[in-house]
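[job 0412] stage=fold_complex status=start
inputs:
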Amino acid sequence: MPLLDVAGLTKRFAGVTALDDVSFTVAPGEILGLFGPNGAGKTTCFHCLSGFTLPDAGRIVFDGRPITGRAPHTLARLGIGRTFQIVKPFRGLSALDNVRVALGHTEYGGFGAIFRSWRTAAPRRAAQALLDRVGLAAAADRKAGLLPLGMLKRLEVARALALSPRLVLLDEPLGGLGPEEMAAIAALITGLRAEGLGIILVEHQMRVAMSIVERVVVLDHGVLIAEGTPEAIRRDRRVIEAYLGETPEEDAHAAGH
Amino acid sequence: MYLYTVATLVGIYCILTLGLNTITGIAGQISLGHAAFLGIGAYTAAILTVTYGWDFWPALVAACLAAGVAGALVGAAAIRVREDFLAITTMGINFVVVGVFLYFPFFGGSFGIGGIPSPRWFGGPLAKPGFLVLTLAGLVLALAVNLWLLRSWAGLALMATREDEDSARAAGVDVRRFKILAFSIGTALAGLAGSLYAHYLTFISAGDFGFPFSITILCMLVLGGIGTNRGAILGAVVLGVLPELFRPLADYRMLTYGAILLALMRWAPHGLVGDESWLWRILRRRAAA
Amino acid sequence: MTATLVQQLINGLTVGSLYALMALGLTMVYGVLRVLHIAHAAVFTLGGYGGLAVYQATGSFWLALAGAMLAAVAAGLAMERWVYWPLLGKPPIATLIASIGLFIGLEELYRIVAGPEPYAFAVPLRLPEIRRGPLLVTPPQLLVMALTAGLLIALWLMLTRTALGLALRAASQDQEMAAACGMRVRGVVMANFAIGSALAGAAGMLVGIYYNSVSPTMGDVAGYKGLAIIVLGGLGSIPGTVLGALVIGLVETLVIGFVEFPLPRDAWAFLAMIAVFLARPQGLLGVK
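[job 0412] stage=fold_complex status=done
writing structure:
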């Protein structure tokens, strides 16, 4: 049984069809690349999968349960973690506290949230461990608002992982990173696979992304135009045409400049 | 004695600013109508004790509940709404509530409610020193509530909501529930202040609880340092005491508040002792050395 | 009965026109800066005082109107320069609080300088009284409606026919895009303030004449109501604001005229706003 089963996902915004009858699956322990030129609908897809946008049509089934249209916090608690394309840290809180917020996902549903304290040893240890994993151990007590972009991207990943998720949606986690940082995050992502997490990766850093994904799905103007292995996609004529349709600036961006 | 009055009123202001801090400082929800909840608490206490002969203590609890429930309703409205809208809505609620108090005879209309009895303590009415102690107890309670909240997962959820609602949702926080919680707690505290206010002044009228007073409370909180409990208390003390120290200032009260708010936002948005304020950073450094 | 209804409709439209002039500035500033310009009400009041002062000095209605509008523009631009522009990068709550501080400070200033007592603003109007059967439009009402119509038409022409108007509309859609297209954003913001303030200044003077009273707190009611109106009509939407203003004006007048409901006028504006808001959070003509 697939971890995630998306069927016929459709979303329209004021005359623009952002997603048009998109269907795909993700297996546990699989890294799926969700690629496509700018404006293809990738982030909209993520918003539908994580509950931030209500699709106009289609069905999303996560681990056998239909989750279409459920609220973001419910999906977070069910085990779907995500990062945002434009980082959204809790700027006034420390990096450690940023992660601790997500660790509280088991508490927020009940009345215990009012009574139990988060300033105990266990959450602190768990948060520190997560920061270690993404290489942010040293920045634990620094205010998130003061951290550089590369670190904030990693903080987003740590926050998503704090949910003990089974599916992680990574929206351009490599953007704005230097080559070493990129390699580190790529290794991290590959490592997650071993734990049985399903991962959907949206990226423009094609070289690195293609090397970690196992299967690729390509969107163009909301339509799923190709699906297959990275090698097959690289040679797919429709995909090449879709990307060629981009302006030189977009090409440069896609090539990682 | 005069000093008792000032001290008691300042104590009541502190409870108000602490309650507003819960809503605006901790949870990041703008509330420009906090005085309305003071009014709801005050009128509840007044009517229950004057018209229905209730005792002080049950009426106090009822005042907190009434204000808290009203706050929960506002919190529920806050869910659908962005910052700017919320500001206007809470402002509007202030006007509507005051309008209701003013025009329905049940609330005494424009005459207000008078003859509110003093609380009874061991058989006799509570004198001024005793009332001050009572108010300080209320202050301690308000402070304790906020401190507890800050340590709890609920408080962390509120702070996350304040910093970034979408990220909070993605982290498992049901932003709706927690907004309602923040409003309820903050307004219940205002209700507590309302009961104390009513019983201390023994006479209340709708005009006491209008928008200008909401602004005054906000000004106190912002002056002290929004988001901090010490700021809430310091701001209430400074702006509560200043007009008494400089009598002529009392006439120019609103002008001063306006100027303070403007100057603060422009040059010192963290207030006197807020987390990033100049003064607090110096104090922190001294303490670390 | 119908006669009274029609009469109340006229009254409501007149009041609504005044609200519209007053509230347009608010919605225009919000559209471009995403800021609630609460101090706008103080600009409105300045229009009242300014117009009165010029009228007492010159005896000319038109000079007074010009004076009111100029004073308002000066005030609006000063606010933009010293309060709103410097606070642009900061969190919106800071600007909101600053605006509130500005408003209450200015009101007090008016009280201190001009005194708390209202001034009369009697202007003999050489306008006809229109009587058509049961319908009666008094000269002040005629003045208000005609002037409002004139100003609104001028505004509409400016927005749709001139380059500045295009820039304003673009900026209210998306400030970043507008800047990218080479428009001087600062200039657009200033023009926006100027126009909105001018309208408010005119409104202030007209309100002073219509109610024959100019006082430091005359901005209160209009100010709060203005906020309710722009939310009702849809934040940032100019047609929405005009519609919202007329609706509020009519609702207020009709309710007070026909229903014995004891709530004060101002509370109605907010109630109407809250009602619309719960049903349609983006306002009557707002965009989600």
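[job 0412] summary: The mean pLDDT of chain A is 89.
[job 0412] exit 0
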